[in-house]
User: Fold this.
Amino acid sequence: MDPLRWRGLAKAEQLTGIRRSVDEWCERAGLPVDLTQMVSLAVYEAMANVVEHAYRDGGPGPLDLELRYEAGAVAAIVGDEGHWHVTTPAEQLHRGRGLALIERLAEHVTVMPSPSGTTVRMRWPTGQSARLRFLEAMTDAALARLDADDVLGALLTRVYDQLSVDTASVLLYDRAGDHLVAAVAVGLEREIVRSVRIPLSEGLVGRVVAERVAMTSNRVDVPSLLENGIRVLAAAPMIADGVLVGVLRVGDEDRVFTDDDLGLLQVAADRLALAVQAHASDAESAATTALQRSLLPSRLPAVAGLDFAGRYAPGAELGVGGDWYDVFSLSDGRIGIVIGDVAGHGFPAAVVMGRLRSALRAYALDNDAPEVVLDKLDRKASHFEAGVMATVAYAVVEPAAGRLTLCLAGHLRPVLAVPGCRGEFVDVPVDPPIGFALRGRPRRGRVVDIPPGATVCFYTDGLVERRDRPIDVGLSELLDAVAAVPSETVCAELMAEFVAGQPTTDDVALLVMHRTE
Assistant:
């Protein structure tokens, strides 16, 4: 911001107008009200002393005032070219009282008399107090009560007010298009069009993105800003967890952005980045949960001689992921049973899970053998879902015959419990997971007999795996827990024993099939 300079004759009638200019400069500089009042009153007292005491011998002489930022402080210099004459006790008292008031108002005061005049220097540090006020505004507890959609606008408005700029805007990073998108603005850019796209290589914001530091520039290459009189810009990168979220950009007509200003701007950018990240996380979580629920069967089919039950529980730490189960009808009265686990968590894993689920259903309609279905699913995933890995168990059940044909793609073996016996893992080989595109190694399907009254339990690793113990312990406990009883009973007991009240890190999918007597 440019300094305030005034030079004229030391006349009493000039002082009110000069003080008004001081107030306006402080306001443009973004000084708080209390500091503005201290600067204004101290400067007025120093000028009044010049008017009353510097020129006694003949007519008013020169009065100089300069108000500026310097090294994290506001500095005021009041000078004259006169010779002070303080003769009477009343004048000495008045002058002493004026100087004492200035010393109370300013942090540092220096009076420098000389044969050519007197200079009074006053200084008010602003860096620390301004930063504290700014941090308070950026972390106000009231923000926590706002809806996620309102936080961004509220924060940007506080940036606009605290930095006292003409315009402020948030430009969010669009990874798909590798550009910045104007999201919200206040001040002169309030009517900004959200469809505006800004290349990462463009001007100041491009340099900020490239170097990841706050910068300022007096080259404005944005036509809409130039048209509104903006001549100086400052911008700071919005980064959360090391990832670029966007850019915070502010502009002003004639302000010089200091290092302190850029530091405060970066504080605001960091806070905005966290708000954007939290908003995106909330939105993604809601979308993931909705997608997961839409893909899990709301009702399992009623099949003569069989009963089914299923459960799904998101991980306590990582939330919804890529686990799923499915039961669907095939031709000739056969039933398809699927349980799978896509590596990863959140919306990306849920989306991949949805695509794999749909593809498997389509392949199952045209192919009777589970191993062929999983081989086609592997080819599809390896080609169209680069980097994806999933474990899948797919079985085709023949209810009347009391058997199923099962193929395992990297998935844990189901548990088979027959009446009067402890549960056992089905004797089926485990082939590589989906997504490895292994050639020359055919997948293998095995037929498993399901006696009357028996129960088959399919599950994902989140049910039995814990950080504080080997997975074999959980698998052994599962063999003890699965009994040849109705499916709903098995599901309820397993969820109570393995999930309820326990800090499961992964999500859990459970599908149980019971063959009635």
